Amino acid sequence: MEFDISKRGLGMVLKPWQEETLRVIWGDLGSIGSHYVWEKVNDRMGEGSISRASIINFLEWARGLGVLRGVEGMGRGGNRWIYSANMDEAEFRQYLVRSVINCLFREFPNEAKDVLKTSSR
User: Fold this and answer.
1) What are the chain's domains?
2) Strand, helix or coil at 102?
3) How far apart are CA 28 and CA 54, in angstroms?
4) Are 83 and 37 in contact (CB under 8 A)?
5) pTM of full prediction above 0.90
6) What is the CA 118 to chain-centroid distance, rounded?
7) DSSP 3-state assignment of 77?
8) Who contacts 95 (Cβ-Cβ below 8 Å, separation ≥6)?
9) What span, in angstroms and rounded, lies between the C-alpha atoms of 81 and 70?
10) Cα separation of 119 and 100, whole Å?
11) Measured between alpha carbons, how far apart are the two ends of the chain, in Å?
């Protein structure tokens, strides 16, 4: 995950299509497959905006982080994953903040402590 402070909101860590992918999952009350997510993202962003393979890779990345949960099932053509939210948007934002803070403390422990001391005054 890369953090770009020149961007705003979730765009600091996600590409627009990745954010839209999560919004599709967060907006759906059930469990959904990658094909459905891919269709919705391309509907919202313009057809042909993103490949299905990119959507699948991102869904698997998010599942690996614990943002999504997945259940492997059988479909036409073999095995497939069905995804649902494991974190809602607020929980994902907290996860991001925690990750950045932990990284800063790991890489710059003294500076991070100093900044927190001065900002709490």
Assistant:
1) 9-87 (1.10.10.10)
2) helix
3) 20
4) yes
5) no
6) 32
7) coil
8) 65, 66, 67, 87
9) 6
10) 17
11) 32
Distance, CA of 93 to CA of 99 (rounded, Å): 10
- Name the one residue in this structure whose structure tokens are 């600091």: 12
Contact between residue 41 and residue 15 where contact means Cβ atoms under 8 Å apart: no
Angle between helices 89-107 and 16-27 (to 10 degrees): 140
- Residue 23: both structure tokens together: 């919004």
Q: How far apart are CA 56 and CA 43, in angstroms?
A: 17
Q: What is the pLDDT of residues 76-108, one digit of tens each?
A: 777 889 999 999 999 999 999 999 999 999 999
Residue 72: strand pairing partners: 81
Which residue is associated with the tokens 């949960």? Answer: 69
